[in-house]
Each structure stands twice: as C-alpha cells, then as structure tokens.
Amino acid sequence: MADLPHKTTPITLDTFLRGLWKENPVFVMLLGLCPALAVTNTTFNALGMGLATLFVLVCSSALVSLLRDYIPKQVRIASYIVIIATFVTIVDYGIHAISLELYNALGAFIQLIVANCVILGRAESYASKNRVTKSIINAAGMGFGFTFALLCLGSVREILGSGTLLGYPLFGESFQPWVVMVLPPGGFFVIGTWLLLFAWLKERKQRKITRQEEAARATG
Prior knowledge:
single chain, flat
C-alpha cells in the first residue's frame, strides 16, 4: 500500500488563498502555460477552460485523497492519470453537450487537461498526503487561481484585440483593434506583462519586509 506520510496540519484560510496568489499556477509557478497561451484569445474561452480545469482539479484531488491508502506507490502516477482522465472525459462530454461553440473553440486542449502539470502536481504533492476536506479546499484555491490567471489574459487580449468583453463592444466604431493580441504572439506579450507585474509586486513586498526587519533591529 502507499506509505506516503499524511499531514495533519489544520485547515486555514491560507489553504485556499495560497493557490490564488502566493502559489498561483500561472503567474508564480509557471504551470499550465500551454492552455494559458492557446485558448485565452477571448474571455469566454478563458472562463470555459478555467472552470473545466477547476472541476477536474477538485474532483481528482478528492478521489486521490480518498484512495491514498489503497493506491500502491509503485503505480501511483499511472493511477492518478487514470483518475484525472476519467473526470476530463466527463468535462469533455459535458462541454460538448452544453456549448458546441465553446467545445470547438477549446478543441484538443480539453483532452490535454489530462497532462496539465497543475492537476497531476496537486494529486502527487498534496492530495495523496492530506485528508479529503483539506485536499478539496486546496485544489479549489489552485483551480480558482488558474481560472483567475486565464481571465486576466483573456480579458486583456479580447479588449485590446477585438474591442469587446464577453462579446459586448466596449468602444466606439473609431476603435482600431490590435489584431496581434488575438493571435499567438499576443498571448506571449500579455503573459509577459502580467509576469512582470507579479515580479514587481513580489519584489516590492520583499523590500518592505526587509525595511521592517532593519527598522526592528535598529530599534532593538
């Protein structure tokens, strides 16, 4: 049987919020960049992919946590992939039934959720070592963090590239769209800008902490 250690640390607000900001899958951990760049040419596509990934992430983490004592460690990765693929199949058929337009827009990237490092990483490093409730909360935080990142990319690209948000026009007829933003190079431009912003915020916070520590030592 799997002999991975089980953590008993209490559930806190940080269990959920960590994935939104401190360990954001895209902006901090740089995971799942393939769908983040490929399907975020519109806000609607970004939201669809984000919610699909959130569903798979939460459900797979819950099931991995439930079965963590019964999955032999020798086949744990293969077992996790089978579990993830099961929920990806559910999402695939669900999106196909709900919105054919979204299904066609996301294309093969729905099936490629199976290979998303965010999901497999949560299963291996967290769900397999923690209780179900804590695993679900952590997975939800990561899923919402991933969705937030996709929305940040998709909204900027759609606004600048089409002059719309969720299909609704924002500017007058005189607005000239930046067509490059809805093309593949636009994804790299936008994600580079967001990464620069997050790096600046992180450095600013670190400088503030350093100044506080220096002030504490000076007064102490």
